[in-house]
Amino acid sequence: MRQFRNDYSEGAAPQILQALVDTNYEQTVGYTDGDPHCEHARELIRQAVGRDDVDVEFCIGGTSTNVIGVTGMLRDWEGVICTKDGHINVHETGAIAATGRTVLPTQDADGFLSPDEAEKVYQFQMSTGRHMTRPAMIYITNATEFGGVWTKAKFDAICDWARSHELRIFLDGARLASALTSEGNDLSLRHIAERVDAFYLGGTKNGMLFGEAMVIADPRLKESFPFLQKERGGLMAKGRLLGVQFEAAFEQPADGSEVLYWKLARQANACAIRLRDGMVKLGFPVYLPSTSNQQFFVVEPAVADAFEKAVGTETFAVLPDGKRAIRFVCSWATKPEDVDELLDFAKMLA
Amino acid sequence: MRQFRNDYSEGAAPQILQALVDTNYEQTVGYTDGDPHCEHARELIRQAVGRDDVDVEFCIGGTSTNVIGVTGMLRDWEGVICTKDGHINVHETGAIAATGRTVLPTQDADGFLSPDEAEKVYQFQMSTGRHMTRPAMIYITNATEFGGVWTKAKFDAICDWARSHELRIFLDGARLASALTSEGNDLSLRHIAERVDAFYLGGTKNGMLFGEAMVIADPRLKESFPFLQKERGGLMAKGRLLGVQFEAAFEQPADGSEVLYWKLARQANACAIRLRDGMVKLGFPVYLPSTSNQQFFVVEPAVADAFEKAVGTETFAVLPDGKRAIRFVCSWATKPEDVDELLDFAKMLA
Amino acid sequence: MRQFRNDYSEGAAPQILQALVDTNYEQTVGYTDGDPHCEHARELIRQAVGRDDVDVEFCIGGTSTNVIGVTGMLRDWEGVICTKDGHINVHETGAIAATGRTVLPTQDADGFLSPDEAEKVYQFQMSTGRHMTRPAMIYITNATEFGGVWTKAKFDAICDWARSHELRIFLDGARLASALTSEGNDLSLRHIAERVDAFYLGGTKNGMLFGEAMVIADPRLKESFPFLQKERGGLMAKGRLLGVQFEAAFEQPADGSEVLYWKLARQANACAIRLRDGMVKLGFPVYLPSTSNQQFFVVEPAVADAFEKAVGTETFAVLPDGKRAIRFVCSWATKPEDVDELLDFAKMLA
Amino acid sequence: MRQFRNDYSEGAAPQILQALVDTNYEQTVGYTDGDPHCEHARELIRQAVGRDDVDVEFCIGGTSTNVIGVTGMLRDWEGVICTKDGHINVHETGAIAATGRTVLPTQDADGFLSPDEAEKVYQFQMSTGRHMTRPAMIYITNATEFGGVWTKAKFDAICDWARSHELRIFLDGARLASALTSEGNDLSLRHIAERVDAFYLGGTKNGMLFGEAMVIADPRLKESFPFLQKERGGLMAKGRLLGVQFEAAFEQPADGSEVLYWKLARQANACAIRLRDGMVKLGFPVYLPSTSNQQFFVVEPAVADAFEKAVGTETFAVLPDGKRAIRFVCSWATKPEDVDELLDFAKMLA
Predict the structure, then answer these.
(1) Residue of chain A nearest C98, judged by CA positions
(2) How are beta strands A102-106 and A78-83 bridged, if at all?
(3) Interface mutation target, options B1, B2, B4, B27, chain D, most CBs of D under 10 Å
(4) How many angstroms separate the Cα of A97 from the Cα of each of A76, B49, B78, D94?
(5) Number of other residues whose CB lies within 10 A of the CB of residue D199
(6) Does this model's pTM top 0.95?
(7) Residue of D71, D77, D235 with shortest CB distance to A76
(8) Which H, E and C letters describe A245-277, residue by residue?
(9) Could you read off the pLDDT of A320-334 as tens digits, one per residue?
(10) What residue in D sits closest to C125 (Cα-Cα)?
(11) How large is the ipTM?
(12) Residues A267-279 as b or e (16 or more Cβ within 10 Å = b)
């Protein structure tokens, strides 16, 4: 049976892979510094986000991108506010602390950073002057760790709050493609690009072999990025591999249809919704509502084990009553028939 | 009116200061490395803690001591478990993160690290292998941030828990003198020295101009300490100043009475208990029970302001109902009549 | 004209790329943690190095590999001795310092770390105890930054020296394939694996899209590596991409011929020697002798500019007399006819 | 016999110590944040340096001061240029690297950073863009590590060079008092304060128990300093101890004579010159010319050993011919008769 463990279980979408094959013998200078593919991809992304004043930089993976972004926008004694489940707070082995900066988690439990909880952390951190890490930045994720998709209203509220406190805004877009193509989404790429200081368009989890494209509006990060990327070990020698992949993802198809980047995400989402609806119909309660490519359900431990064995799902939370929140992930490579096969299996566990 | 803001509001106990004056013209080698006062103080402390296999090192202040201790016992990717109010978690401007290590706070709210809450953090951090900071150490404080004194039972329980999880144990003893001389205390210095990997005997908050004496049993920290102390900027050129002070504090008086280190703390505690009993009698509710030199009471905001203005008390927590937990601190320099004057003033606010 | 700028100017050797295409739709768990390709590649490499007690870990690039290796074998206050031109000393934007460790450069000018110069640094660093970074490791590169290939005698001498000083040994093998297949080389992969604590088999500069395989004998680094790789942002989500590539490189061909990893390097070397011999014949003086895929010549500034414009060569050193040492690099993708075309061009500048 | 090992072999000048005794029972708020002694000392120092727009901050010792100053003026990927013998390069156990920043040493061998050598380092570091640490600051010391005193011309030359390269300037003034009161000195405190971004007035080596006063003109460091001081473990709880000492050192005496800070240094210098002249007369060759309180002579190893045993001198360099450069240091506590006694002893070794 097809696995639903993750959106990085396969290689790359065939169009992406073909682009790598097609350009394989070209000779380029290294490090994303001026090869034509990177330059072209930069231009395509600038158009997509609707700003020609941003820098576009190509990174090798999520942790590396987060670390460079945070390091470049925080001074040594400053901290970044995020939810307690934020990827940088729990899933990156202390990578932010490893650069000397401090993560300041809120008590938000649903993956969305809220002005109310952020305000509590902010007030506390400001309460004893130089004896506390000074908040200088917020970190949000779209889609969230739990598959949640930010509405425009919610997004504007946290941005307004951050601005009113003179905090920079960083958006982790590892699964941004899925979020922005999800059913009912009312937040646009352009609006994000207008409001945040830096964000990235995730490639690894949306059909590329690897790679994230960081869009940088903040002047301080613009200046620091190139050096920090090298210093933090995140600069790829054959940088054009990133350019080639993002070029393929954002190049306008001749037939006028949507660019590949969004198409791949829609495909993953469609399977995820099919999966969600099927599971709900079978009586599996949703853990937190999601319209994106990750879906979470609450199940008994034995059921969690059965799913894990069969399709590689992972446990994300053990609930107070002993039940578990498990995650199913669809990708560009998931097919509707894979979902149906899963649902047939799930029927036996329902 | 005498201030009750802190136990570092004055200079040094007169005996300590006199020792500095008496030795002022002696010439010694620097950096605590082999001058007779440091060597003698080391010997006195080894006797006091009942172990001749420990290293005794002299530090300039609490944050510096904590940072060196944590850095010397954690690898880059390891973390230290402490309560959410732990000094290293909130009051040191991210000093642990500044060395690349991660603080892993529990939800304990009373200042005591409990096996139950520590276990939750431990289990969570172990749940996804290399993607999470690996817990390797616990950090506890005696007396706690809220003046609480560890009982032997409670102390043994957390030590047992730590040992069963192969975690190192670090005890912040900035106010250890006050804790161990407090009414009802059943934990001995020797027992602490037997069980923890490193701890310190605080001097700054117990009558010295500055200085903490770190007692180190852990072989890894023993080897690292001298270098880390220099690298972290915590090595004092005129190191003998630390030796002279701790010598004066731990030298056995000719009259057979207790050494100065404990005497000074008893004096502070006696005033604190007088203060506590007087305040309770006046109807001020205690915030968290304390038998040591810090006392916390719950008061209305206006009363908090009045106390702050009069005697320099600080707000430690704003409670959900808007009331405040304020702190009164007694030191070796506090006199019973100072307390009585304070209580007279408090009467007007009761 | 074909560029001679670098050995990472092209994509991947066709056999490597084909392996990625062939395995593209397979689903694997992430992060190199247990997918069959990584496991198989690990096994092949263990066989190639002749040790089954080593860990084999897959990294994304040279700087990241160096940083993880150094961090995992040095404590905060320890340093690594290398030549002044060592990659970690000059070409990685302070990546070692960024992890808090110190690089201790010698005055060796030819790219080879010598016992004599290393001894000078060692003695100096040991001269004032804890006031100086303590040397704990050496870093060498084969081939060196200037294309030099270590003889067995020279290699054993520096290893003997390091062992006699209780220093760990790390070998940067970004171009190890070229070194070990170079004309006259008498150092074997197995001998290296017997003597050093960690080294890596470079893939990026030998026909892979990216990737280095670290071989780890040191117990401390073994334990730290998985966590450090994540913490330093060097862990690839689709880890199997590394496994697939190294599998293709080290899989024994059915025809009994040499594995691809060495074949690719021989091809690069053959072109480099053809280039060298041709240039020497034309009268261009060699800068430092090299038998590997990098060749350096001393030329007038105007000639340097002409070569740079034509084939992308870079200046590596400006000599006291104003002349320049420029570098030509051949790769698996260089063909003899490319070299001949270059030599035709060079004739005009000779 | 009186030791000549160091200028931190004794406690404090009696006037300084008396000030500590006199203020011992005063209660002040902590951390140098607003107590009257610190505020007064700040005002006195602002007057002495002739600028009321600078921040004056009190530090606990040289390494801590250097680390805070460098961290506060360098971004993660920037480096500081200094001579190869610079204190931060060799004598602080990698304290700068421990904060993630890189030291970029020149080949200057006499302790003075020269525009020519600095330019070489600068040009090299700028040669490959983001692959190298970007120079952003210079670090100089007055008096130098070898007792040398900067002339105004030399000082202006390096400042001009730094400004023309947009580098910040940091002056380590651990022995600034000795330099500025030395015979023939033509550089004024006011001129230094006009030209550098930050510097400090050393107290530890000029008659205080400990303490350095950092004078900060740079806006970035002004903002960062308070937080960095806490984060780096360099903030003293009883901050007023620093204020009291610097107050005593810079308070104008009622008799109109020079302030204590300069008087103490003149006393040390006078002894050092007496020592130098005596030694030279005895035929001991000077190592590097010095007019300040440190004097270096070239002697045979056996003579070095004899001096070390007798008066605690240390070897600073082993020369190619096997001879040694040894250091004699005078302090505020050295008396002319101590020098004469030393010279009597030296006569036997001449």
Answers:
(1) A231
(2) parallel
(3) B27
(4) 10, 35, 11, 20
(5) 29
(6) yes
(7) D71
(8) HHHHHHCCCCCCCCCHHHHHHHHHHHHHHHHHH
(9) 999 999 999 999 999
(10) D90
(11) 0.96
(12) bbbbbbbbbbebb
